Amino acid sequence: MKRILLATLLMCTCAYVGAQEKKANPKYNEKLAKEYGADDYGMKMYVLVILKTGSNTTETKAKTDSLFAGHMANMGKLVQQHKLIVAGPLGKNDKSYRGIFILNTKSLDEAKEMLATDPAVKAKLLDAELFNWYGSAALPAYLKVDEQMGKYKF
């Protein structure tokens, strides 16, 4: 009896979902959607990178500072190439997570190639966990105004 009830409920739910009409967006801008690579829902795939403390803990402070300066410069280069969309540090946590990147690619292999250009990652000061992430295709649009936000530069 429970199986029949569950099957009936499932069929009714599927029929309801299938019968719903998609509502057209009156503000839809086809040119803009294509420019940003949006799907029909205004979304696209990215790669989310979680940076965490790496295995190399033996570098001198001067070397670590130099590698992190290279890390920041590399981030700037990736932004200029429209490959790095979002980046920022995380607050203290018990997982040794240090920061995030959202990379403008859906390919994990391409994301790994981008990370291979980072001196702090290459030196194992930072390790990276990569995930496919589905988010707003408009995310890169904020970069057009981002450089006007900070009073100071890193």
UniProtKB/TrEMBL annotation:
Residues 47-125 form the YCII-related domain. InterPro entries: Dimeric_a/b-barrel, YCII. SUPFAM superfamilies: Dimeric alpha+beta barrel (SSF54909). Keywords: Signal. It comes from the Bacteria. Residues 1-19 form the signal peptide. Belongs to the YciI family. This is YciI family protein. It comes from Pedobacter albus.
